[in-house]
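SEQUENCE WITH STRUCTURE:
===
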Amino acid sequence: MSEVPSSRQIVVFTAVGEEYAVPISHVQEIIRYTPPRKIASGDTALRGVISLRGKILPVFDLAARIGLDADGSDSHASIVILEAGEQMAGLIVGDVEEVVTIENDQLDESPSVAGDAIDGIARIDDRLVLLLSPERLIETLDLSGFDAELRAA
């Protein structure tokens, strides 16, 4: 029987002026924003793909991914590279603010009206930070056809 840890570390960042977080265990790395190569897709949150050390990764706009109106400003953006199971993807976020350790008693379940991607709400001092589920943010995309196209460009 495994014990539930009494605390966890999260990476806190902004999107459209609000604070969000993901568990640090799912963050592969954080990189400075570079415009992704656009690809045709029916997913409006998909901004394109990037090559990270030879691996092609989809890059999503976090605001659009969770149903917010993006402000379109990428001047202070970062890309958080998330890993969930076998999937990796980048999320365009605003400023990456901090890594915080939260105790379980600082975490509340998300209300039933919250989006699918929200795991809970962390109370950090006087702030409410929405904790996102990396697994539900990253949907499986078949990008194998784009790999050869990007290498040829």
Observations:
- The CA atoms of residues 11 and 99 lie 5 Å apart.
- Residues 146-153 have pLDDT under 50 and may be disordered.
- The longest strand covers residues 7-15.
